[in-house]
Q: What sequence folds into this?
């Protein structure tokens, strides 16, 4: 195994965790613009709290190597839902960020599983 693989995996995971922490905060204390977007996408007024909880859980799971694949998987599911929501609503300006984070989440998932396999 490449000796840099665990370092790359950990670095990406921590950056991703920071993104999800920021996203959880932004969804827990939602701006009027984002609240309007949730409404336009057809979600109920309280749905942003569900998103915040899921993003916080993903961030916390990403921090430790043992739970990292679960955090990356959960983050990927949240970002897949966000990407799909924005694409189905033709809100292409908002589709770029969740699509990129979805890709990074999948990369972290793959890297963390490779590191775990190599350690066993």
A:
């Amino acid at each position: 195994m490449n000796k840099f693989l665990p370092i790359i995996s950990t670095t990406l995971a921590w950056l991703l965790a920071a993104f999800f922490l920021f996203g959880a905060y932004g969804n827990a204390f939602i701006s009027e613009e984002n609240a309007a977007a949730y409404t336009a996408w057809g979600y109920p007024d309280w749905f942003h709290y569900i998103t915040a909880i899921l993003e916080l859980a993903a961030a916390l799971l990403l921090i430790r190597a043992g739970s990292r694949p679960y955090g990356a998987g959960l983050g990927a599911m949240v970002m897949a839902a966000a990407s799909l929501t924005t694409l189905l609503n033709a809100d292409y300006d908002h589709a770029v960020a969740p699509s990129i984070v979805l890709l990074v989440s999948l990369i972290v998932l793959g890297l963390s599983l490779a590191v775990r396999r190599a350690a066993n």
